[in-house]
Amino acid sequence: MRILLSGIAALGLAMAVMPAAQAEPIKIKFSHVVADSTPKGKGALEFKRLVEQRLPGKVVVEVYPNSQLFGDAKEMEALLLGDVQIIAPSLSKFSKFTSKLQVFDLPFLFDDIHAIDRFQKGKIGQGLLTSMESKGYTGLGYWHNGMKQMSANKPLRVPEDAKGLKFRIQSSDVLEAQFKALGSNPQKMAFAEVYQALQTGTVDGQENTWSNIYSQKFHEAQKYITETNHGVIDYMVVTNTKFWKGLPNDVRPVVEKAMAEATVFANKLADDINEADKKKILESGKTEIITLTKEQAAQWRKAMAPVYKQFEPEVGKDLIDAALASNTAG
Ligand code: LMR
Asked: What pTM does this model have?
């Protein structure tokens, strides 16, 4: 009996000192649809680096770029199911969950990425991060990509040039309305399918940032890119609310700090990556970049303006006005 008891005691002692070493690390899968070389790709890798450096053996972050794990259609559902723990869809892809984020898609709303940054960092922007908690999603931060340019196989100089063309769009009703206002044919399509659709002529054109155009080689399938800067592609990094709140108390603050630092890191890089990729596209000689005159730019703005009135009831005038005000509140 004594032997048995001391055996049990020894086992107990061994278990008391071992669990930390033997506990399975918490796995955070971070899935996104773009390349590692883009602002979002680099931000995700920086988050992984920081977390694994600070919580060695406790947390592992697996990053899946290029729609490898989940594409646009499935990632929000996968997040709720716990098949992935962090995703970072563009702000255009949340309209099923909240109408408020549609504000970001309004054409010519923000003058540049700095205005967007001010709006996101303000009270209203920060409030939007928690606007989907009742549906199980928590926003962890905004990550920048940049301003959108428009591409096609014919030169787009004035809005009439886009008439009758088929454009691939993200799954956003605002973007659909934007192209309809031009008399074009918008088609919602997952990001992973765009290159092939351009190559085979399923669509005639698309709108995206320089970094997405370059990393996906869209410029090799499009003869012209017009520097319209007519809208923005930015992201909300989102997690599963239950998963995040359930992280152990000694883990969550460290992961949160790593996310805050990765956010600063990615947002600092975004402008430079887009500028560098624009240069690479120009140097490739595979496409022509068209610069608009002031008068031409004004025509695009005017042609897309009706979208504001159309979405004002859903998005809210206050929200639109607050976003517009960020252009001057420098
Ligand atoms: C797109 O679908 O064009 C973009 O949202 C992709 C991305 O994540 O930047």
From this structure: 0.92
